[in-house]
Backbone:
């Protein structure tokens, strides 16, 4: 059996190295906090962190000092306000200066697509009249060879490692995802190494019974990590809700560098792995975040023997 | 200064004005905060066929609770389609399927250009703001752009520190010369007044004061001598039905009405 199952510790040790570019993607949903925390615990450094929305996970990783550079398109705490640790790094160089490379959402998506499809650039109708190209010389404009029209282009992005959370995969890494698909497929195909982290490991037959739901094929997956609740305080559709209370609380904690360090001590360095974090989180929190059921109708793919 | 007690909050006036402006609309690209609740109110009142589009990759959302973020799981359950963001940005937004886009930001100028990136210099910002997200593309592609933001001299400025998302740029036909598909800014909804861009050079123009707001109070909060419509109207206050829908159905906890 072709198993790629690893523990989170093994997967990060094996595939994430100092100086690497790392994309932990997932648009509000499926953000693998478990992987981010393990990267902090292993004290990786000089990473280039890539995400459309750095979110609280990169705020924590920047505060912990693992990053040298940030590639992004929206630097906010979604629905709450600022990412205070990243702001401290950019505005005051605390704990260290942070280089930034900034795009719009469509620009980041286009970069992943170009990276995934082996194209030299991705054309999009954006950036005209904006100061963003002046702030980032990698955003360029070209003329269409067909009608001479000017369009913006962005370069391919091929992260050293992509880490993607999902509901389920088989041991070979065939991964099924439903809910907000974000740019999970695009960044997976763009990356040199892919770690998928899932709520459940299922038999290959489960995957084969519903192939339309397979977003990432095992073909491009290097490691599969089984990590229930691994996206908290982000969420996995149908498994647990976004912990909005924590996102609000983080706004308060992260305003102060010392309180941030205290939080990291308690919830990241102070636990040995995600299982311990989940246990520490407690049954009441897990219960609070449990959604009701909303099943889809089964579909008939047909049997053609 | 306003001594007349009003039975509604300024934020409720903004929500109601935004919802009414969506009358008859088919598709809206929903932003975080007030637009979220305004679009849901419109769907229940003046625009029953309105489909909500979220940049997270959702078309036709029917959220059963008011989402805190634009990536809430309640946007997916019961929606018409949940898709990759590549599909959303390529086919829905760039494909011209978005009728109205909502934006807001830290700074806006007289031509409806928007800054959500930095205060002061980009390389050494005094305040680092979130940046574009999808705003730059929404500004370029939505058929109509509605801005929703509180009126203040810090926000309505003579000169932006950074142009994140283009409005009418330097005015006149500047958008057309850059072949921008979308129609550009149409309406600015604030807590004190409403503005449009119905001027030959596409400059912002005050056309309606909210109930109980004095003209001076509006002019004092804008960093340039703003143009006035020939006749200023008074915005119709929220109706009991609109307020009931906001307070009892959409935002019972008062998250959006502080």
Residues:
């Amino acid at each position: 059996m072709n198993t790629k199952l690893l523990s989170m510790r093994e997967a990060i040790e094996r595939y994430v190295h100092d100086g690497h570019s790392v994309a932990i993607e997932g648009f509000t949903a499926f953000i693998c906090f478990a992987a981010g925390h393990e990267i902090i615990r292993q004290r990786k450094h000089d990473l280039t962190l890539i995400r459309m929305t750095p979110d609280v996970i990169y705020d924590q990783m920047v505060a912990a000092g693992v990053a040298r550079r940030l590639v992004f398109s929206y630097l906010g705490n979604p629905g709450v306000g600022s990412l205070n640790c990243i702001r401290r790094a950019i505005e005051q160089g605390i704990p260290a200066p942070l280089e930034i490379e900034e795009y719009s959402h469509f620009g980041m998506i286009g970069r992943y697509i170009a990276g995934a499809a082996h194209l030299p650039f991705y054309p999009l109708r954006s950036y005209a009249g904006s100061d963003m190209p002046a702030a980032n010389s990698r955003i360029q404009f070209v003329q269409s060879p067909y009608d001479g029209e000017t369009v913006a282009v962005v370069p391919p992005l091929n992260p050293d490692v992509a880490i993607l959370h999902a509901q389920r995969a088989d041991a070979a890494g065939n991964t099924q995802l439903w809910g907000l698909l974000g740019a999970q497929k695009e960044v997976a195909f763009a990356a040199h190494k892919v770690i998928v982290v899932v709520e459940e490991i299922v038999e290959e037959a489960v995957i084969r019974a519903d192939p339309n739901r397979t977003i990432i094929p095992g073909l491009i997956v290097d490691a599969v990590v089984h990590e229930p609740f691994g996206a908290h305080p982000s969420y996995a559709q149908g498994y647990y809700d976004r912990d909005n209370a924590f996102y609000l609380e983080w706004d308060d904690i992260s305003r102060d560098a010392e309180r941030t360090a205290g939080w990291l001590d308690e919830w990241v360095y102070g636990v040995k792995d995600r299982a311990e974090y989940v246990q520490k989180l407690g049954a009441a929190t897990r219960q609070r975040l449990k959604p009701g059921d909303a099943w889809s109708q089964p579909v008939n793919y047909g049997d053609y023997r | 200064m306003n001594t007349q007690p009003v039975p509604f909050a300024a934020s409720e006036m903004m929500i109601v004005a935004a919802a009414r402006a969506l009358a008859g609309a088919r598709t809206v690209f929903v932003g975080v905060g007030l637009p979220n609740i305004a679009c849901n109110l419109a769907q229940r009142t003046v625009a029953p066929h309105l489909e909500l589009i979220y940049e997270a990759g959702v078309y036709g959302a029917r959220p059963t609770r008011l989402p805190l973020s634009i990536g809430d799981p309640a946007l997916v359950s019961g929606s018409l389609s949940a898709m990759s963001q590549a599909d959303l940005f390529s086919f829905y937004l760039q494909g011209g399927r978005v009728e109205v886009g909502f934006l807001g930001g830290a700074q806006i100028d007289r031509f409806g250009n928007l800054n959500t990136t930095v205060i002061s210099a980009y390389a050494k910002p005094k305040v680092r703001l979130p940046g574009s997200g999808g705003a730059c593309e929404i500004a370029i592609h939505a058929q109509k752009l509605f801005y929703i933001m509180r009126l203040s001299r810090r926000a309505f400025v003579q000169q932006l520190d950074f142009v994140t998302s283009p409005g009418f740029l330097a005015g006149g036909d500047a958008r057309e010369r850059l072949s921008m598909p979308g129609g550009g800014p149409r309406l600015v909804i604030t807590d004190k007044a409403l503005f449009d861009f119905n001027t030959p050079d596409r400059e912002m123009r005050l056309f309606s004061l909210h109930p109980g707001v004095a003209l001076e109070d509006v002019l004092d909060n804008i960093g340039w001598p703003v143009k006035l419509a020939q006749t200023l109207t008074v915005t119709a206050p929220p109706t009991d039905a609109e307020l009931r829908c906001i307070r009892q159905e959409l935002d019972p906890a008062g998250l959006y009405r502080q």
User: Anything to note?
Assistant: Residues 1-5 of chain B have pLDDT under 50 and may be disordered.
